[in-house]
Write a structure and sequence with these properties.
- The protein has about 270 residues and is an alpha/beta fold.
- The protein is about 30% helix and about 15% strand.
- The strands form 4 sheets. The chain has a 5-stranded parallel beta sheet with strand order 1-6-5-2-4. A 5-stranded parallel beta sheet has the order 8-14-13-9-10.
- The termini are far apart.
């Protein structure tokens, strides 16, 4: 599946028995942004609980990938099959959905896409919604995880890359946080950036809750700057990094990974 689909495409393809819609919405962003559609979801969607069921509860850092066997178990509980064509959305337009898209890619499931514009765009088109029901029961799925370790960077890999520069690290945080002139939203952390990393604030690749056009993204991800090196995406906790990763996927063929611990892990370990 392509990285992005439109609301019109999804509405047209709802009759496909393999289409499986996942609501990856959060209660809000770390900056305090809250959706006006908190209690609504696309009709038939299942809730993907990113913060609880699909994050490593044993990690000291937020939003860390769960173990593949745990990810597989939770997916099966939702009724997801290996044949499922997953459509991921969130209620802010584009925020947490790219993280879930990347997680499925890491777990070896390529039949996954993000709904561009998310729930706000779906509703603006007049398509059906329903009240959120978190306790929906479903038949156990047969999803199987096949972990792609090359798509995940850890502290040691980032440390080594500072020396060998085999990959370009791209930070999705704001310019102020990246430059150390604005505070981190997590008060225990200092701001700043990983040595030699570049900054593309995630808002730069979005417009009105959707990804910018291919031509606009090509201008942001200049091929001369990014050449053919691997790209590693970082942010505060590994979530908005996936927004710019997905944007780059639309215009660059480079190998891509996420530094899962991101700035939260990096600044605490180097301190």
């Amino acid at each position: 599946m392509k990285p992005l689909v439109t609301s019109q495409w999804l509405h047209t393809n709802l009759s496909d028995a393999d289409i499986f819609i996942l609501d990856a919405s959060l209660t809000g962003t770390i900056a305090g942004e809250v959706s006006e559609f908190q209690n609504k979801c696309i009709a038939g969607a299942r809730f993907f609980d990113l913060k609880n069921n699909f994050s490593d509860a044993n990690s000291p850092y937020p939003n860390m990938l769960p173990r593949p066997e745990d990810f597989q178990k939770e997916c099966r509980k939702l009724g997801i099959n290996s044949s499922s064509k997953l459509v991921i959305y969130d209620n802010l337009g584009v925020y947490s959905s790219p993280r879930v898209w990347w997680m499925f890619k890491v777990m070896g499931h390529d039949n996954v896409t993000v709904l561009d514009g998310g729930l706000p765009d779906w509703i603006s088109n007049g398509y059906p919604t329903e009240e959120i029901h978190l306790n929906k029961k479903s038949r156990l799925g047969n999803f199987k995880a096949n972990f792609k370790k090359e798509m995940v960077f850890d502290f040691d890999k980032i440390s080594a890359n500072i020396q060998d520069q085999n990959a370009i690290v791209i930070d999705a945080r704001s310019e102020g946080r990246f430059n150390g002139t604005a505070p981190e939203p997590r008060p225990e952390l200092k701001s700043g950036h990983i040595q030699n990393s570049l900054n593309i604030p995630y808002e730069k690749v979005l417009e009105n809750g959707k990804f910018k056009s291919v031509s606009e993204l090509e201008a942001i991800f200049n091929s001369e700057t990014y050449s053919d090196k691997a790209l590693v995406f970082s942010c505060g906790s590994g979530l908005t990094a996936c927004i710019i990763l997905l944007a780059s996927e639309l215009v660059l063929p480079n190998k891509k990974a996420v530094y899962d611990g991101s700035w939260t892990e990096w600044t605490q370990k180097i301190s």
